Inverse folding.
């Protein structure tokens, strides 16, 4: 990805709704700072981005070169472990038979109430009105 550093145009460089710079313009910004010795504040003003953004891209260029300018995924690096099926059964059983809420179930099973709630939502049992009062079965 070779870019000319001698001819600049001031215009809006937006690749998508949240992008301040495209990969091509990140490279131009970084090269101005790293290779041409521009102060980060001046380069940031020129590209209409913050000082912090300018220094971030310059540092990434120093560390990774041209490949550091491409977009990265914003997805998590790891996925949380799914609640084991036997534990899901216990949660559902306590909900059906004893009509307990997430906090009470969590206390009995020694686990976070937010996890219990997430399981109940997945099983569509997050509201007691979804559980039949007489039989305890899903309504």
């Amino acid at each position: 990805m070779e870019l000319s550093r001698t001819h600049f145009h001031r215009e809006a460089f937006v690749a998508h709704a949240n992008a301040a710079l495209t990969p091509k313009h990140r490279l131009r910004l970084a090269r101005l700072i790293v290779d041409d010795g521009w102060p980060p504040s001046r380069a940031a003003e020129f590209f209409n981005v913050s000082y912090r953004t300018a220094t971030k891209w310059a540092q990434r260029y120093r560390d990774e070169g041209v490949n550091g300018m491409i977009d990265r995924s914003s997805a998590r690096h790891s996925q949380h472990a799914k609640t084991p099926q036997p534990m899901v059964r216990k949660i559902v059983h306590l909900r059906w038979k004893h009509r307990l809420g997430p906090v009470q179930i969590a206390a009995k099973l020694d686990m976070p109430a937010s996890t219990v709630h997430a399981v109940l939502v997945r099983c569509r049992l997050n509201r007691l009105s979804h559980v039949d009062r007489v039989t305890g079965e899903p309504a």
In short: Residues 1-15 have pLDDT under 50 and may be disordered. The radius of gyration is 27 Å.
